[in-house]
Specification:
With 279 residues, the protein is an alpha/beta fold. The protein has helices at residues 6-16, 28-41, 51-56, 60-71, 88-97, 111-127, 155-165, 189-198, 213-221, 231-244, 251-274, and strands spanning 20-24, 45-50, 78-85, 101-104, 131-136, 169-172, 202-205, 226-229. An eight-stranded parallel barrel has the order 1-2-3-4-5-6-7-8, surrounded by eight helices. Helix 2 (28-41) packs across helix 11 (251-274) and helix 4 packs across helix 5. It is globular and about 60 Å long.
Amino acid sequence: MNPATLTEIIDYSRRHTLGIGMFNIVNMEFARAIFDASQETGLPVIFGIPERFMLHYYSPDCMALVCKEMIKHSKVPAAIHLDHGKTFDGVMIALRAGFSSVMFDGSSLDYEENVKQTAEIVKIAHAFGVAVEGELGYVGRAGTDELTPDSFTRPDQAADFVRRTGVDALAVAIGNQHGQYKGIPKLDFERLKVIRGTVECGLVLHGGSGIGNEDFKEAIRCGINKINIYTAMDLAVKDFTRNSFADYASYLDYTKDLTKIVREVVIEHMKLFASVRSN
């Protein structure tokens, strides 16, 4: 099987009324865990490679190759996605490495500049046959950025943004944040419903780790197709390492069990996102 595009993943989400998880890859163990979880559950998956990871921690070409080799043997659709591409150069690196979808995050730019730069990325990526996710509104980071409705995605602006850029998916800000929440966030589902009614493209929820189970389900019912998860895996691995690393005589045995920990987190989220699906 070849890597799926984000458009194919979104189409699957719509046909079956379920959310599909994007899980960020830190290393080979994370990649293995994410792939194994998809095969065990029989659910599509998105391998997420953030721009900051591929620029500072590993080679995008090598990690993309690892993902492609796994996907060759996959029984479910799987995409390789650039998460939070902040720069033109970062997006071009991902396209050359063979990613099947890219995100350009221009949410920190003023609106017109976000439209301009995102539209240019869409034009180039579509020429490669690669789908594009954009972002509108400011998600920010839990514990650092204060949330106000003024920073949320405006439905009228979302319709204009999608029309002028041609994005295949739109990441929205509805009370979600990246990182570890202090308590359970309150999502603006009414806003999400209006956005869903004004745009045809896929909708994406960033900052998924820490959102309540029922809120996940409601977000999917209201039109979310793709949900990003990283912090939940990060916290589980750090907790496992703090409590268990000294018990291992072999580093290889430690990494084997670490992979199991990550796989369990991924499976838990995949099953939750699929729990509202229609047959």
